[in-house]
Design goal:
Radius of gyration: 21 Å
Number of strands: 16
Largest sheet: 5 strands, parallel
Mean pLDDT: 87
Number of helices: 10
CATH topology of the largest domain: Hnrnp arginine n-methyltransferase1
Order of helices and strands: HHEEHHEHEHEEHEEHHEHEEEEEEE
CATH class of the largest domain: Mainly Beta
CATH superfamily of the largest domain: Hnrnp arginine n-methyltransferase1
Low-confidence stretches: 1-37, 361-372
Shape: elongated
Number of domains: 2
Bound molecules: S-adenosylmethionine
Length: 372
């Protein structure tokens, strides 16, 4: 069952890649790339795509992201001491488990619920570390560990941090097995947002609304405006129209499992810093991994496979320095691997516009300018 958007009073919560992929950046708005890289549409949810981690293509994408792997490698080296016991939550191909063994871990429990666990076993065997790494196939929620652990490592971040809905299982593992004084990797993840100019989004929305071949395809534009667009590699520092603001902050030691299961909610006000056109709201994460090691997909940072997320507006809007943009955003954990998002935006004196990934494509009409 899908999680409802529950009201929350928490507000701000305490809590390169080396792929030559111009074609990927250019075509990410299309479905082709999602299929190619292992995303699939959630049944009955026209605007929600979820990574299918049973597919090797998803893991190829992550493993080729050397910025990501290097950040984890450094953090694991800083955290794991010889003889440590480590839990790898959502181990995938067991890359983090292998890095933990390299760092001196005596035992690693690699928990993975998707069929990629079979590949993990092969990788472990080829590296001759079967003695040190035990693959536990199943959901973290349903497995048992024979002993407490010194370190928990997990790559649970979606494009803007919490959106892949993997945080709660990681925290459950912490509550059940992390020793007192044990270490979490990453230690803290913040999500950030700023109004952006997204040239590809602008161009695509214009196309859908241009009656190509004499056919009214504006429904496609209406539907696109209800999707959180992922992998926006072309949205860089030069695309930002205001100072970024923090959406929320997740402390891996402090955040409770219950909090991780509730919607993440933020209200932000931006003041535009230059004349331009706003086509959406860009979002990304900043992860403090361990002892100064940072992993981020922020605009201007080293390229990663995540790119940026963009929450589209209905249409591109002209802005100038001083234009106020108010945003209400909710990211609600939903099914395994995905969340629903709802965002309302007011640009200057224009009426609020409202977006919701759960909205059925047939219900989109007349959503521009609808009051809250
Ligand atoms: C982002 S991938 C990371 C894979 C691998 N750790 C890496 O860094 O390449 C997250 C993995 O977590 C797994 N996963 C998601 N929810 C899980 C759960 N509740 N229990 C165990 N594994 C889970 C997914 O199947 C996926 O392989």
């Amino acid at each position: 069952m899908l999680a409802p958007f529950l009201p929350s009073e928490r507000g701000i919560r305490s809590q390169p890649w080396n792929v030559s992929s111009n074609w990927l950046s250019v075509r990410l708005l299309g479905r082709l790339v999602f299929v190619e890289h292992g995303y699939s549409q959630v049944r009955g949810e026209p605007s929600v795509f979820v990574a299918d981690y049973g597919q090797l293509s998803m893991h190829r994408l992550m493993l080729r992201d050397c910025v990501r792997t290097e950040a984890y490698r450094e953090a694991i080296l800083a955290a794991v001491r010889p003889g440590d016991v480590v839990l790898d939550v959502g181990a995938g191909t067991a890359i983090m488990s292998l890095l933990a063994v390299q760092a001196g871990a005596e035992k690693v429990y690699a928990v993975e619920c998707a069929s990629i666990a079979r590949v993990a076993r092969q990788v472990i065997a080829r590296n001759a570390v079967e003695e040190s790494i035990q693959v536990l196939e199943g959901k973290l929620e349903s497995i048992e560990l024979p002993e407490p652990v010194d370190v928990i490592v997990s790559e649970w971040m979606g494009c803007y941090g919490v959106d892949e809905n993997l945080l709660a299982p990681v925290l459950l593992g912490r509550d059940r097995w992390l020793k007192s004084g044990g270490i979490m990797i990453p230690e803290r993840v913040d999500a950030w947002m700023a109004p952006v100019w997204d040239s590809a989004l602008h161009s695509d929305m214009g196309f859908w609304r241009s009656c190509p071949c004499g056919v009214d395809l504006s429904s496609i534009a209406d539907g696109t405006a209800q999707e959180v667009l992922l992998g926006r590699h072309h949205v860089g520092e030069e695309s930002l129209l205001a100072e970024p603001k923090r959406l929320w902050s997740t402390d891996a030691y402090e955040c409770s499992v219950e909090e991780a299961r509730l919607p993440f909610v933020a209200s932000l006000s931006f003041s535009v810093t230059r004349q331009g056109q706003v086509s959406g709201l860009g979002a990304w994460f900043h992860a403090d991994m361990r002892q100064g090691v940072v992993l981020t997909n922020a605009p201007g940072g080293a390229g990663t496979h995540w790119g940026r997320a963009v929450f589209p507006l209905e249409e591109t809007i002209e802005v100038c320095a001083g234009t106020e943009i108010d945003v209400e955003l909710t990211c609600a954990p939903a099914g395994a691997g995905y969340s629903h998002a709802r965002w309302s935006v007011q640009v200057g004196e224009r009426p609020w516009e409202h977006h919701d990934t759960r909205r059925d494509v047939t219900l989109f009409q007349n959503s521009v300018g609808r009051d809250a």
